[in-house]
Amino acid sequence: MTGDLPLIEVACGVLQRADGQVLLAQRPEGKIAAGYWEFPGGKIEPGESADEALLRELHEELGVAVRAARPLIRLRHAYHNRIVILDTWLVTDFDGQPQSRENQALAWVALDAIAAYTTLPTVAPILKPLRLPAHYVFTPPTIDPATLRDRLPALPGDALLRLRLPALDDRAYAALAASLRRGGHRLVLDRDPALSRELECGWHATTRAWRALRQRPDVPAFYGSAHGRADLDALRRLDADAAVLGAVLPTASHPGEPTLGWDGFAGAALESGLPVYAIGGVGREHLLYAWQHGGQGCAGISAYW
Ligand SMILES: Nc1nc2c([nH]c(=O)n2[C@@H]2O[C@H](COP(=O)(O)OP(=O)(O)OP(=O)(O)O)[C@@H](O)[C@H]2O)c(=O)[nH]1
């Protein structure tokens, strides 16, 4: 119990097909919140781990056998009559065709079409990590545009790419951003938000920049830097799409800076309500650590170039 409210721990799974559609289930008559659409899953039983509960629930409810899954996000949501901790997994491989075994309606739905369904309030915060890749790469601050272009093919294919180039004037920065955008890169800019709007790119705010905000900036996607849980809470209130939290490990570029370690990272990221990338001494080889500690993935500069 938390206060007077029961605390319910739940495991749920996002089954995603190759075309990007995800499986929604409608809670049947007789269950709490009947009629609402959700991601399939159910309560974690005493003595069970979240991944064991996931496998059991998806087999009981849908008749599928999970072959591969990874943590997506762990949320905490307070309803008027219960608090739910929702351990959400991305199911990347499974055997069998999902069938309704508990009288629930099922639907494969494109992420952009989910708004037409009446969903539980925990569905929207799960769409944020679902739309984001596992890697968020910052450009080395002094890299010249030609070298940058040469090295882009070696980055993880769908990574977010933050153009952090303080030495470029605004004109040169905008021209480079426009041409990379035409090349199909998932860009994040950190100049005037108007440029992010014009080029339909993300916008990244330093802690100093977002602390000056009173509401979400008008940009297609909004990311912010964070150093602890208080920052993550503030970014969630600003409706950020994701945060970058660090430093997780010591780095050569910031010697002596205090580090969170992976446990400190997890302590801040888990149940923060946001996808959180780990940064600071982190590279692509740390992806499993990031997922196991409640992260969206890894962010960095030097480890990626
Ligand atoms: N499966 C699932 N449950 C969710 C989601 N979001 C969310 O708040 N919940 C809440 O988590 C709880 C899941 O309980 P449940 O009643 O479905 O669990 P269960 O399958 O073990 O059912 P049972 O208690 O009838 O055996 C409910 O309070 C439900 O409202 C979601 O996306 N998927």
From TrEMBL:
Query: In the record, what terms sit under GO molecular function?
Result: 8-oxo-7,8-dihydrodeoxyguanosine triphosphate pyrophosphatase activity; 8-oxo-7,8-dihydroguanosine triphosphate pyrophosphatase activity; 8-oxo-dGDP phosphatase activity; 8-oxo-GDP phosphatase activity; metal ion binding
Catalysed transformations (reactions):
8-oxo-GTP + H2O = 8-oxo-GMP + diphosphate + H(+); 8-oxo-dGTP + H2O = 8-oxo-dGMP + diphosphate + H(+)
PROSITE patterns registered for this protein in UniProt: NUDIX, NUDIX_BOX
Q: Tell me the superkingdom of the source.
A: Bacteria
Q: What sections of the sequence does the record tag as coiled-coil? A: none
Q: Does the keyword Cell wall biogenesis/degradation apply?
A: no
InterPro entries assigned: Aldolase_TIM, MutT-like, MutY_C, Nudix_hydrolase, NUDIX_hydrolase-like_dom_sf, NUDIX_hydrolase_CS, NUDIX_hydrolase_dom, ThiamineP_synth_sf
Class in the EC hierarchy, top level: hydrolase
Q: Which cofactor does it need?
A: Mg(2+)
Q: Where is the Nudix hydrolase domain?
A: 6-132
EC number(s) reported in the record:
3.6.1.55
Q: Name one Pfam family in it.
A: NUDIX_4
A GO biological process this protein is involved in?
DNA replication
Keywords attached to this Swiss-Prot or TrEMBL record, sorted alphabetically, are: DNA damage, DNA repair, DNA replication, Hydrolase, Magnesium, Metal-binding, Mutator protein
Family recorded in the similarity comment: Belongs to the Nudix hydrolase family.
**Protein name, per record:** 8-oxo-dGTP diphosphatase
